[in-house]
Specification:
heterodimer; A: 300 residues; alpha/beta; Rossmann fold; 6-stranded mixed β-sheet; 4-stranded antiparallel barrel; 35% helix; 16% strand; globular; B: 261 residues; Nucleotidyltransferase, domain 5; elongated
Amino acid sequence: MTSLTHLQKLEAESIQIMREVVAETENPVMLYSVGKDSAVMLHLARKAFAPSPPPFPLLHVDTRWKFRAMYEFRDRMAEETGMDLIVHINPEGVEKDINPFTHGSAIHTDVMKTEGLKQALDHYGFDAAFGGARRDEEKSRAKERIFSFRTAQHRWDPKNQRPELWKLFNTRKHKGESIRVFPLSNWTELDIWQYIYLQNIPIVPLYYSAERPVVERDGALIMVDDERMPLEPGEVPMMRKVRFRTLGCYPLTGAIESEADTLPAIIQEMLLTNTSERQGRVIDHDSSASMEKKKAEGYF
Amino acid sequence: MPTKHLTPEILNKLRLEAVRLRLDGHTVAETAARTGLSAPTVSAAWKAFREGGWDAVAVRQRGRRAGQAASLDAAARQALETALATLPPTGEPAWSSRGLAEALKGQGHRVSPRAIDHWLERRDLKPEPLALNGLARRRSQLGRWYRQQLAPVLAQVKQTGGAVWQGGARTPPPDSGLAEEPRRYQLYLHGKRGALFTRVLAAPPLADDYLALFERLLATTQVPVALIFRGADLQAAPAVGDWLSQHPEMRLVMMPAGLPA
């Protein structure tokens, strides 16, 4: 009997989870944030249901503030995979012109991401949504189950979660409930990078180091991705060799100074790092236990 | 045999052996063949022996003895760091090693420009200018940029008797290599023969810092200047754009991002 490598085991587990969801739910969807985890999740989904395209659409809850490179990449991948891409932008947020600068990261995230996601799930009637969250990202994600049940109001109760012993998943839903499913729960950031490297998975170029215009905000390097970024009086963006460990809304995502412009170099950098990738996300610093609070309110 | 790679000890042994062979009556050519030294080295060793005896045969130690290097004391280093954050009183665009040495002399620190050069180099504050020679023929992104954007500007500026300078903004790594250390922000220019003019700031340079650099550069050169610049997105700063439109004698050519230094 041949033994599987740890990546093959993770891959098999994720594929099994995806097939289980498709078998047990009526209207699943894959949340596609365009980041590296989404790239791996999409790759696994294509493997799980090959040769057909995955039997569910991709849903991108857009905030209008993602990096330009992410939009280009998203559209390219939707075309390449032949999957339906649903892009949802919270119309109320658009009407009020909610943005990270005038409204702050907390309101922007709540309105454009959390509320936007809930609106999209309700509108299309999705009863299961795949997400690319991993347990090593953040402490509240660490305790969330792979099959995470949400009430009809999309609320998460961390104190009322189902056991998942021996990888047996109870997918029975109460009326109105939906499931957030995290097939990459047991992957680490390093696993993701190794898998991307081994499987040659396309990712947004922002993950590779390059000279980019950045300004400093509270110690974080924020890329000036378009003319909407307000500069301080007299401020001049500097061109610095940076890359992103995580991707979100560009005004809320800090870059790291890095020379890693290839996958092996990124993996080598990963091996030496001892900080979470989400350290670069401004939204995670809003308040203590902010992620758990956001998740309880319906954040992905 | 080239002797440059030999340690002084081995070279001296061979020189003594060469003198012994010459004393035994061997010719210079025979001695050179047997010791592996060159004929001029054999002759030099023989001449040294005839003029000064056995003690004169050994070569003198190369370079400075350990500890003899001109070092900067803590007060001089502090004075340098303070000066680098300011604009030089001489009107130069930024600090040159010579300007820093003069300024320190005024404060009672006798430091040579060369020692300051070494100090800057050790602190990774001596960026290299881009070698423009041969770029026109390169079949790379850099070559294309040179031919399409830089060469026409250089031709125009040279026609009017102007000067070509290079410069940029950068963030050198922290002195200790520890990421927690405060960042340093360097503004620099390279003038004739790559002479370095620099400032080191504790915060990212603002539009006024860039403009002070450019204004002083024009005042120093007194001729039209083509400035090849990198490391800042100056197009995003309206103040710089306005200033450039009022100073057509300054032709700013931004190096595209991602090109090798």
